[in-house]
Amino acid sequence: MRNIILFGAPGAGKGTQSAIIREKFDFAYISTGEILRAEIKAGTELGKQAEDLINKGELVSDEIIIGMIKSFIENNTTKDLLLDGFPRTVKQAEALDEILTSMQRGKAKVVELEVDKDVLMKRLLKRAEIEGRKDDNEETIRERFNQYDKKTAAVADYYKKKGDYIAIDGEHGTPQEISVKLIDILEKL
Ligand code: AMP
Q1: Going by C-beta distance under 8 Å and a sequence separation of 6 or more, which residues neighbour residue 73?
Q2: How many whole angstroms from its chain centre is CA 64?
Q3: Distance (Å, rounded) from C-alpha 20 to C-alpha 143?
Q4: Where are the domains of the chain?
Q5: Percent of the chain with pLDDT over 70
Q6: 65 CA distance to ligand 1 centroid (A)?
Q7: How remote is the CA of residue 79 from the centroid of ligand 1, in Å?
Q8: Where does the pLDDT of residue 75 fall: very low under 50, low under 70, confident under 90, or very high at 90 and above?
Q9: Which of 52, 86, 110, 111 could be stapled to 32 by a disulfide with Cβ–Cβ 3.0 to 4.6 Å?
């Protein structure tokens, strides 16, 4: 069974590409960010814990996120996985490895969408106008980039060392054109 991590900085196009490739492949899909936003909207305890952190651009605790992913994987034992926005720390990546091993699911493979930071900022500010996400303002975006550099970039290195990492250009071309490259890779994984 495939365990695909769609990786990239905020605004790289993980959500957009996930939507396109899910029309082609039957993945069990999870976006940790989307779940957290739904929890906030529903006013749950988890949502209350996450809201301030998300609005500041900081990461939610590894414990909460790992618990969320563990139950998702346990509830989707028969399908290929598509993970969007997780793992974001090396601790989360290590926990994922343990879960996959214990469930005999094989390795995780990372596909990164590479996009220049200036382009990411422009995309996110444009998305703010369309979707109105509270964390898509310049100050919070800067903090999200900072968290990415400090904590998340190391996740790419973690998978590079294992030989389970591939990057594609997520900057040039339309979402459809980028998805063609992504689908080509996924067909070979
Ligand atoms: P996203 O929709 O992936 O951009 O995530 C929005 C926000 O949710 C992030 O800025 C974090 O505050 C939080 N978040 C989402 N996924 C994770 C994760 N794997 N670990 C920690 N925080 C997360």
Answers
A1: 81, 99, 100, 103, 105
A2: 16
A3: 28
A4: 3-171
A5: 100
A6: 9
A7: 24
A8: very high
A9: 86
Is 182:188 a contact under the CB 8 Å cutoff? Answer: no
Counting every residue, how long is the chain? 189
CA 71 to chain centre: 17
Residues classed as catalytic: 14, 88, 127, 133, 144
The domain made up of 3-171 has a fold known as: Rossmann fold (3.40.50)
Q: Does the predicted model carry a pTM greater than 0.85?
A: yes
Q: Locate the ligand 1 atom nearest the alpha carbon of residue 84 and give its number.
A: 3
Residue 12 Cβ contacting ligand 1 at under 6 Å: no
State the residue for tokens 């290195």: 157
Ligand 1 center to residue 53 CA distance, Å? Answer: 9
Strand spans (E) along 18-150: 27-31, 80-84, 109-114
Q: What are phi and psi of 108, to 5 degrees?
A: -95, 145
